[in-house]
Amino acid sequence: MLQDIVIGLSDGLTVPFALAAGLSGAVDSSALVITAGLAEIVAGSIAMGLGGYLAGRTEVEHYQAELAREYREVAEVPHVERAEVDELLAEMGLSPSTRAQAVQELTADPDQWVRFMMKYELGLEKPDPQQARKSALTIGLAYALGGLVPLSAYFFTATPREGLLWSAVITLLCLLVFGFLKSRLIGQPPVLGALRMAGIGALAAGAAFLVARWIGG
I need a labelling partner for 118 at 20 to 30 A (CA). Which of 27, 137, 159, 197 fits? Predict the structure, then answer.
């Protein structure tokens, strides 16, 4: 869930901010910026949520395919699979006598045998079948929440330029806080993470603003 929130919020704070900044350099109506921003947030939330759903489904389908393959190999070539179990146990530092007993016990139950191979040979954990839906909802909501942050300034300002100024202040502060917390949670330097996150948002918004000004004359 934390990973999904990070994905949704980081894109939600950055993409609508860049869009609003670009429009602010090309139009004179805050209403137009708000309308386009809300449309982008809706479309972006759906697209990001769908991406999260497809990623979750792919993980489940990949696990099921590998699980079926392991069951088939255990049934068809058990001697090969037993040798693989012994090799894995040897890598863990077990002695030959201990490995022999462990192999015998692990391979006595096909379900236990396959679970061992899935985890230690393939490095796969059984995914939550509902994770795809949870990811879609979490990413979509996080994106929408993040997108409303830069857009909120335009509801309370008279012109797009004024809205852009306040939007930049609010969004960059949020990006700094978000980048700091995210980096701290994953064990990276928090100050560097905060500056990196804010820098990406500022770069995207600045580029969009300059392109819109250049095209609009």
Answer: 137
* Distance of alpha carbon 59 from alpha carbon 51, whole angstroms: 12
**For residue 21, how many other CB atoms are within 10 A of its CB?**
27
Q: Where are the alpha helices (DSSP H) in 92-130?
A: 96-106, 110-116
pLDDT at 212: 66
| pLDDT tens-place string over residues 111-130 | 888 888 888 888 878 888 88
pLDDT at 217 over 60: no
Instruction: Kindly compute the dihedral angle of the four CA atoms of residues 133, 136, 137, 142, in this order, to the nearest 10 degrees.
Output: 160
Tokens of 9: 């919020």
The answer to whether 170 and 152 are in contact (CB under 8 A) is: yes
